[in-house]
Amino acid sequence: MEKLEDYVQGFDAESSDSDHHGMGALEILRETVRILRYNLSSFMAIAAFLICPLCALLLPNFLVDQSLPRRLSDRLMLLARSSGIPLVPFVSKSCQKFSETVISSAICFPLYVTLLLLAKAAVAYAVDCTYSRKKAHSSKFFMLIMKIWGRVLSTYLWACMVIVGCVIFFLVILVGVSTTFSALGSSDDFQLYMAVFEGLVFSVAFANAVIICNMAVVISVLEDISGLGALLRSSNLIKGRTQVGLMIFLGSTIGMAFIEGLFEHRVKNLSYGDGSSRLWEGPLLVVMYSFLVLIDFMMTAVFYFSCKSCRTDAPGGELHSIVDSTALSNEAVPIPIQPQMSEEFRHNQ
């Protein structure tokens, strides 16, 4: 116990020199690791019972009939050619990847609105318990989720509509601009460069939309707000912190894409040996992917608390814990808290 108290004093001394007006992406990652260490059992349970089964189904992608992405990819390439976009390997590969993502998302949507949404809510609850110095209990979480499931589901459906709307808007703009320049007699190279430029602009806008939607789900768990209101609340919270959110999104996306590529090469499309390595490489990559998903969910929750702690114009100027509001537990847990957040949470207690 003395060692723990010494660590807390050292932690507070280290945190006192940090920026109290918000954390950067690396600080959020460090804070996430600290929270994971001091509430390890709760987060490992979430990963084992919710995230791992989901990733074991999604990563191999065996729920999707592979003929469906090929059909959609062929239609997209036909649309691109009719719009004047040259069918270079990059365009063909992009159409194929986009088709696989769309079909997989549509078929696996029931998993997203159950296991994925439960995992996000559980992570947000566990992070909130950590900052509130409460113990996270599965029974109390399920009691809570029964009360707030309606608003969490509503927020997630609104987020899905926003994401789908962004994709449709991009496709309409891409086809419209490409058709216009094709009618004006532009060269194939110019058409390709324009398409790449539009894709880059869309990637930044799409990343912002995903960040807003992810935080909106956290807001629907931790605050009494849902649907469009949660999306607007999320957009307001990340003002001035967009760069931090983009760095978090970029890091998570690169990490997950790397694991997906390894799984594709080492497990799904084995091009070496007799295939015996699949017996241990497949489960190992699923576990690694699940851990990255867990860290991504945790960083989103920590990013929410970081944004809210530095928003002086937040309604009421206080942070309201779902743990306190539902009277889930009064048992304290010796978890070191960063100064910029702990003062507000202690004020509520």
From TrEMBL:
Keywords of this entry: Membrane, Transmembrane, Transmembrane helix
Transmembrane segments: 43-64, 104-127, 148-175, 195-222, 243-263, 283-305
The keyword Transit peptide is annotated on this UniProt entry: no
Name of this protein: Uncharacterized protein
